[in-house]
Amino acid sequence: MNVDAGFMAPGGKSWIREWLFTIDHKRIGMLYLWCIMAFFIVGVFLGLLIRMELFWPGRDFIGPQTYNAVFTLHGVIMIFIVVIPSIPAAFGNIFLPLQLGAEDVAFPRLNMFSFWLYLIGGATALISLFTGGGAPDTGWTFYVPFSAVTTTNVSVAVAGVFILGFSSILTGLNFIVTIHRLRAPGLSWTRLTLFAWALYATAWIQVLATPILSITVVLIIIERLLGMGIFDPARGGDPILYQHLFWIYSHPAVYIMILPAMGVISDIIPVFCRKSIFGYKTIVGSSLAIAFAGSLVWAHHMFVSGMSDTAVMVFSLLTFIVAVPSAIKVFNWLSTMYKGSIRLEPPLVYALGFIFLFAMGGITGLVLGSAGTDMHVHDTYFVVGHFHYVIFGGTGFGMFAAIHYWFPKMYGRMYNRKQAMIAAVLLIIGLNGLYFPMYLLGLQGMPRRYYDYLPQFTPLHQLSTYGSWITFVGLALMLWNLVRSRYKGAPCGRNPWKAATLEWTLPSPPPTHNFDEVPVVTHGPYDYSEVRDDD
Amino acid sequence: MTEHRDYVGAKMGMWLFLFTEILLFGGLFVLYSVTLGRYPTEFHEASKLLDVTMGTTNTVVLITSSLFAALSVAALQKGSRKTAELFIGLTMALACCFLVIKYFEWSHKIHAGIYPGGETLVQWEPGKQAFFSLYYTMTGLHGLHVIIGMGVFTWVWAMIRLERCTPDHFVALENAGLYWHLVDLIWIYLFPLYYLIT
Ligand code: HEM
Ligand SMILES: [Cu+2]
């Protein structure tokens, strides 16, 4: 078996017809994966550019207006085009039906349509760069009143975000129905993989939260094009309402980003410890609890916006509560590893990196969630450090762990394990170098999104920039290893990790028609007693 | 791949989608209630300027169209394709009627300078301005949904002609009907909020 076998095998039609109009969930997932990777690379270069500019105070390479456009674009690409679709749209599409023993998702054509919306939305966001009054300069949050009055091309960019949101809603909707309707015989809810459970909880957030983002960005467009004044106090509007609407989506959105990654980690850890997951039901419960409680804490982004003191206290308390289920998961993972027979393979190394970096970000989340300390560090580099630890260290590492876990299944080949490990270690070192100095900068009062800074911040900024270079080397090594192995890696069998979930019973890569006969499930996803050594 | 048919799944998908639509308008209803809480008297005053007769007519028109939509589903289930098509036609005709009335309402207001940035409106208190910005946004978005609904019905109508939507597999028409009921339902909330709070 190799890269051109199974569902990857050409079917004799033109590449465009075969791939861009495919309704095979595996091909759609691969398309997402490649697009996300391409956008990720663009986003990384923008990030490196920001770090380069901040190497010295004052102007180094680009002017202030360009700088504003660059960090806005970096944020929009990374959040809306890369991180939110990353694991659900790519790996969810490829592996959810396989893990359920299903032939496809519930609505294959809708799935293709979601992918098209994703492409069109991403393209629209990019077009906003080169047309109209130049790239948007508002930051990814598009806060009014600035976004309503700036002459840059905000309308086109948020139209792109609207379309991407639509794509996300339809993917979530598709997954919910798929999980309810298409489980193989014997696959009860308590035998579902934790990855599927995580996608289920995520899908509900996608369906319930994204419409609020849609209406919010529509309002920006209406505000700009028709001058409605909905957020303009002079005309009876209120800019704080914008912040509420925005965060009612965007806080739950951080759980759209992290829950699927947690699902990946929950699937990987038992496999490499040869032990059933500790506390299956608490992990499921905490996913659902995060999805629910995560919808109630949005206003912790607005402690200094002028809300009432009561609101500040209530949201601060709720924020502390939502940290509990995440902590429960970390305890479960660690308990699974305790006394397991651990095989330190690349997916596990990435998973361990995830746990460490996510914890670094989650704990500083509590510093931000407590209103008193947030007053001090709000809108400083502390926040930038926090969310990069959780998003890059969490979702990013979850994504990398998923790639290294499922790569042999997708391509039928194995990558160079040693290089994969080196890349993982470089990334962990790089990320700490890149983001830890930001915590210190933030505590010392360096505001975020500033083009220039006081000379005393120079050493920490330079440290961070060095970290960005190490991160870059790690990413480059990881990608090079994967791309090369796709063609040259050693062929591997069905089940190189000896995992017990259904996707590993199929050939690698899986055939177009997933299962020749509908599988009957007789045991849980982490029961290794019946895994045979036959390949 | 074999054609996969799942009636329950298709209905479930549609209900989830309707949920997202409700939430979309939900954001606007939140804006409305906050603004109303802030400017109760101005909203009261501004509401008087809307034409209750036209609003009421439109409510009746839309409810009737919803009835026709339901009848078209029932007709197809009973196996009479022709009657189903007729009822779809009537639904669409009333939808047009709704839009025409809306058009006259809006153009009267706009001629009188009552629109965001319009010469009359800019001189009024902020509360009244807020009322009208929300009025145009919400009824405008609702109108857009009416147009989308008409598109959906046209598509289902074609499906019936092509015998892809049949008395045995009528879920497409049923889902279109559900969508139409939602559009109707949203209007039933918009009507009292804008026309009847005088
Ligand atoms: C689970 C993964 C998480 C992700 C992906 C995430 C992401 C983010 C992002 C993107 C921001 C910055 C928003 C901006 O641009 O202004 C942010 C800020 C914030 N996060 Fe998180 N976060 C996560 C977990 C947490 C946790 C567990 C807590 C608290 C228990 C928390 C509390 C906060 C607070 C309070 C802020 C606002 C800080 C401020 O602006 O003053 N976050 N987070
Ligand atoms: Cu948050």
TrEMBL record, chain A:
InterPro entries: Cyt_c_oxase-like_su1_dom, Cyt_c_oxase-like_su1_sf, Cyt_C_Oxase_1, Cyt_c_Oxase_su1_BS, Cyt_c_oxidase_su1_bac. It is a multi-pass membrane protein. One of its GO terms (molecular function) is heme binding. It is found in: Cell membrane; Membrane. It catalyses: 4 Fe(II)-[cytochrome c] + O2 + 8 H(+)(in) = 4 Fe(III)-[cytochrome c] + 2 H2O + 4 H(+)(out). Residues 19-522 form the Cytochrome oxidase subunit I profile domain. The chain crosses the membrane at residues 31-50, 70-95, 115-135, 155-177, 197-222, 242-265, 277-299, 311-335, 347-367, 387-408, 420-443, 463-483. The keyword Translocase applies. GO terms for cellular component: plasma membrane. It holds the Pfam family COX1. One of its GO terms (biological process) is electron transport coupled proton transport. Keywords: Cell membrane, Copper, Electron transport, Heme, Iron, Membrane, Metal-binding, Respiratory chain, Translocase, Transmembrane, Transmembrane helix, Transport. Its main location: membrane. Belongs to the heme-copper respiratory oxidase family. Cytochrome c oxidase is the component of the respiratory chain that catalyzes the reduction of oxygen to water. Subunits 1-3 form the functional core of the enzyme complex. CO I is the catalytic subunit of the enzyme. Electrons originating in cytochrome c are transferred via the copper A center of subunit 2 and heme A of subunit 1 to the bimetallic center formed by heme A3 and copper B. NCBIfam families: CtaD_CoxA. This is Cytochrome c oxidase subunit 1. It comes from Pseudodesulfovibrio indicus.
Automatic annotation (TrEMBL), chain B:
Gene3D superfamilies: Cytochrome c oxidase, subunit III, four-helix bundle (1.20.120.80). The keyword Transmembrane applies. Keywords: Membrane, Transmembrane, Transmembrane helix. It is a multi-pass membrane protein. Its main location: membrane. It is found in: Cell membrane; Membrane. InterPro entries: Cyt_c/ubiquinol_Oxase_su3, Cyt_c_oxidase-like_su3, Cyt_c_oxidase_su3-like_sf, Cyt_c_oxidase_su3_a-hlx. GO terms for biological process: aerobic electron transport chain. It comes from the Bacteria. The chain crosses the membrane at residues 12-32, 52-74, 86-104, 134-157, 178-197. This is Cytochrome C oxidase subunit III. Residues 1-198 form the Heme-copper oxidase subunit III family profile domain. GO terms for cellular component: plasma membrane. One of its GO terms (molecular function) is cytochrome-c oxidase activity. PROSITE patterns: COX3. Belongs to the cytochrome c oxidase subunit 3 family.
